[in-house]
Amino acid sequence: MSSPALHPFVPNDYRKRVLAAVERRGGPDASDVFELYDIPVESAGALPDDVVAARIDEVWAFWQKHRDHPKYRVLVGRLVAEHETRSAALRFAAARAAQAGVVAARREVRDAERYRLLDSAIERLQARYGGIPTSKRAGLDDVGAMGGLTPDEVATRLRRYRTVDDGASTPQSSSTDSSSLTDRRLEQIDELLGEFNRLRDEAPTPTLFGLLLLTLDDADNRAEVQARTESLSQRARELGAGRMRAVIDELLLHVRDVLLGDPATAAAYADAMTGRIAEYLRPRIRAAVLIEDELLAEDRDFLRQEAIDRGAGPVGAERLIGSIAAEFGATVTSGVAAGQTAAAPRRDWAEPLREARGMLREGRPVQARSVLKRARRLAGDDVDAGRQIEAVADEVGRAIRDAQQRWRQAEADAAAGHHASALETLEWLARHASDIDILRTSGPGLAEALENSRRLLDAAPSDVGAVTPAGPVSAERTADGSIRVSWLPSPDSGASYRVVRHTPDGRQQTVGRTAATELEDGGSIGVDVPVYEVTTIVDGRHSVPTRSGETVEPAAPVGREPRVPDPDLPPVGGVAATADRVTFVWPPGVTEVMVVIRGDESPNAPDDPFSTPRKVTITRYELDGGFVIPAELARPCHVAVASCRRDPAGGLVIASSFGPDARAVAADEGR
């Protein structure tokens, strides 16, 4: 009888299926070794030791490669640091089988917690209807999602229960007639509003009406729209040249065409925006009215504010919530009018719940958790209250687990002398979990840890100069309003780079840390490009920093001759293409390439005047799983890839020709 085999290890699948789930739940402490090393717990004892060891090595190699991943850096850093301890229990069959029994029991407990909200809803429906009504079935998916369950997991759970036909039909989403407004126009508006929101540090602007400080309630008030448009146009003319001015000017063109042009187009736009808000509210209202067939005042007030935040006006928000609740056969509880009295259930828990939500938004999850305890005491056995409180408690719990994991990572970085990484993590905590140090029983608080980290980072270490600094640093604003910071690499092996932004008021902010030679900063708002400082880090040792605008050449390390760039760049090889993506093999030492695309024939050279060039960094390539061919380019098309490097002045130098294996054809999707 042959031994059981493991499923193949696929990096992209592992990142989406395992790493994302572990990050979402709060880190390794909310997981187990079988999930982390992608080994099925049910067959753990029967797997040969060499098969398990090979899987451990595959996962270990994946972690090593993703230590600088922008989203998972903290999580992967901890997994790498604890690899030896975690993997030890998996390497031998006897220990693996014993561990599998423990993990299986823990998973049952964890699953019971995840299913708690769903099981509570099912129990109430069973008691009220004698089964699961067909009209309530879809709403259970929304309740399950609150506990982190997928629709398939909900469906599996519901196989145990009888379905009853209560004669109600499932409500259908209403469609919006927006024939006078093209999808492409809506996409263009959305893209511009998205860029407008990224360029300013204020509450998001969801619609063209919001750009004018109006709501959808004002859609028919063309005189007010006209006056607000002229006012915004005047303010835009007072702005200096820059991306913000360009974005506002383009948005104003859409305002005049859509809101002030044909009234039918303005009405179609308002309907489209109302439809989006309705689609956002519908599953939330369905979950809120699932049990009692009634939308209570606390839920109504919360959902009304959610609708207003997305562009609706107060009148429209009330009307929309009422109509959606009616779709599900529910009534909306309204407040008591002046001069009237009504016996209403006590809702003392509502105020602390609202306070906890505010604390979570402000980055104080530990204090929010304390307030939720008071809300639970006041709620007693109120099922509706418990559902709302536990939904917020889940968010608070995830925030606290994430913050604790990052705090541990900061401590580990500081202990290892990696003060730049520690400072970056502590600054994140100051923004998103400023009260996490309340849970500490010893050691410095967050403010003291931040001060210590800044002081140690500012103090020149004894080995400064032993690490070769990066080459000249350049910074330029891109078309989307962010700033691309790039530099020549340090010749030292294993180097990573910390990028710090210096603002005119003297403040410093860590933008990020990367092993590449380029980083985009989307948090710098304004006309002027700030000064950026790049510090090379090797094994916890720091170089002297290099700032943008400086012309100093990087110093050569002791005992080593300065490197002279090779005029013959190594060729890119292994180029392959699908309908939407290009993959290839990066030559050693190359971190940027130029992808050249042409429709009629293969590009004859990297500077082919009839082609479309696109520069790609190794970081972007790894995040996207290749180079994504722009959707607007026709298929089929010919692609070729050439190596690039930076000259001493920071300019981009492209190879003069393509390698022998650097061309491919991207076919259309139908072929």
Question: Can you put this structure into words, describing what you see?
Answer:
- There is one protein chain.
- This protein is an alpha+beta fold.
- The chain has seven domains: 11-112, no CATH class; 115-164, no CATH class; 183-332, no CATH class; 350-400, no CATH class; 404-458, no CATH class; 473-547, Immunoglobulin-like, CATH 2.60.40.10; 573-666, Immunoglobulin-like.
- Helix content is 45%, strand content 13%.
- Strands 7, 8, 10, 11 and 12 form a five-stranded antiparallel β-sheet that branches.
- Strand 10 (531-538) and strand 11 form a beta hairpin.
- The protein is globular, with a radius of gyration of 29 Å.
- The two termini are 43 Å apart.
What shape does the CA trace take? globular
User: Helical stretch count?
Assistant: 22
The radius of gyration computed from the alpha-carbon positions, rounded to a whole number of angstroms, is 29 Å
Largest sheet: 5 strands, antiparallel
End-to-end Cα distance, whole Å, is 43 Å
Mean pLDDT: 79
> Low-confidence spans: pLDDT under 50, at least 5 residues?
168-179, 336-344, 551-566
Global structural class: alpha+beta
Question: What topology emerges from the helices and strands here?
Answer:
Blueprint: H1 11-25, H2 33-36, H3 49-65, H4 73-81, H5 83-88, H6 93-114, H7 116-129, E1 132-133, H8 137-146, H9 151-158, E2 163-164, H10 183-198, H11 208-211, H12 222-237, H13 243-259, H14 263-288, E3 294-295, H15 297-309, H16 314-327, E4 331-332, H17 350-361, H18 365-379, H19 383-415, H20 419-432, H21 446-458, E5 473-477, E6 483-487, E7 496-502, E8 508-514, E9 518-521, E10 531-538, E11 541-542, E12 546-547, E13 573-577, E14 581-585, E15 592-598, E16 612-617, H22 618-624, E17 627-628, E18 637-646, E19 652-654, E20 663-666
Parallel strand pairs: 1-2, 3-4
Antiparallel strand pairs: 5-6, 6-9, 7-8, 7-10, 10-11, 10-12, 13-14, 14-17, 15-16, 15-18, 18-19, 18-20
Helix pairs in contact: 4-19, 7-8, 8-9, 8-14, 10-13, 12-13, 14-15, 14-16, 15-16, 17-18, 17-19, 18-19, 19-20, 20-21
